[in-house]
Amino acid sequence: MPKQIHPLSDVHSENIGNNTQIWQFSVVLKGAIIGDNCNINCNCFVENDVKIGNNVTIKSGVQIWDGITIEDNVFVGPNVTFTNDLIPRSKVYPLRFMKTTIKKGASIGANSSIICGITIGENSLIGIGSVVTKDVPPFTVWYGNPARQVGRINLEGKIEKF
Fold it and tell me: Whole-model pTM?
């Protein structure tokens, strides 16, 4: 199935995989790479130096800035906030934006904030409203402000709390 781009979106990238849907009022800049079978909900923004893998769901209201890589099978909940500059200033840009990686199978709950320069591990789970300020190991469950590990999660989605 070919990609489906809503006529009310503003998509400049040619690097969008098959069966990917991009909904209304979303903007995708020219350099972005988006894999197969993704769902980019309405009111999202995807900057140039962004890589999104296959089977990724990005819910409404998410901005994905330069330097962010999202691997396969990731879920990003509504209004998740990513950053790419630890010391942002108006009209002052770093030579290079910080890199953030969301590893395959991870899920990030609604309204979470992800500081730049970290890795969220494979199949980990970030609870809603969390503020993630450091690397998250694979197969772990985190929530809170600042987010702390509260358990482990297996491939079937079963959570074992501490």
Answer: 0.97
